[in-house]
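Troubleshooting log. The previous structure file for this entry was overwritten by mistake, so regenerating from the original sequence record. Sequence copied from the archived sheet and checked twice against the printout by T.R.
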Amino acid sequence: MILGIRHVVLSAAACVVAGVSGCRDTNTRAEARLTVPAEILPAGLPVDSLRPVIMADSALLKQPTALAASSQFVVVADNRTDSLFALFDTRSFQFAGAIGTRTPTPDAPLFAGPVGFASGGAQFQMLDALTRRVATYGIGDSASTRNLVMVDSTAGLTEIYPLSKGQFLGVGLTVNGRFGTFDSAGRLQRALGTAPSQPDTAPLYVRQHAHRTVGTLSPAKDRLALLGKYGDALEILDTRGHVIARGERPVKFDPQYVVAKRRGFPNVALIPDTRIAYVAATSDNDHIYALFSGRAVGAAGAKAFRGRRVVVFDWDGRLQRMLQLEQDASAIAISPDGAWLFAIRVRPTASLVRYPIARATTTRTVATRAKP
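Regenerated output below.
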């Protein structure tokens, strides 16, 4: 649903922060004005306060953007180091080496901005949405680029989830469907699920963008959880595209935006009242962990795209608890055994942090509150 039509489109600077193409109307410049609370939080959940342990700081990390965890390694993508990835051993939690280079060669491509990748055991895949390329990297004895493909131009992917033999699922389609299956050459094989229907008068691209998600594939690779970026909806689908559960909604808010034109074409434009719901997601066999913001972009700016609360669901979509971080994070990953939560901080300095889940202490139950 389109809400808040009367409000102004965000300024160019705020749109860059939001990471939304076509988010600005260069002919509209007015003071951002909120008509909603600046921040809303989940209510009625038991809260576990987590104790942080720093694994790496700005001596190793410059601009970390994404991470993934396997049983052996934590992999961190970084946009400003000479290498593309930093590896950390999950037994010693020590730095284990780096992969990739920012000098473009046929075997070591230059990625302009890693925005989503996931672990796949002894290898992982990474998506660069700016150049529509997916690279598969090996870890350990074969720490090199194993495969590099261009993604089908009919898909505007925002996240990928590795399957086997270089295949993957991808969300962020510009065609009908909720997600797609891709072969090892990056070709879209099938679009699965049902594309968003609201607002039903808007073009398909606008509907897909307004209902953009962050997601996580179950370790068994049989269920995909999609959590709203601009509204707190959760859908759990099987790999054939069937919705098997709709999750509980801790706050219950829907996307707010306007449809504007950019270069003559309709596009999604964020407004001051646009609220960020889920920032990132990860999962183990039992639970879905979703990093929650709840902040309006007109008040929080870049901070709206980070969060310090992790909402935990089971795989039936039922709310379980909330994990409280002591500082904002921009990405999270869970160890396969569910014992450790890893997080990236970008402020006040870049760092990789681990939190022991087993030793989390339940301190209180959240009451509904809003920050003006």
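The first helix runs from residue 12 to 18. Archived copy saved in two places this time.
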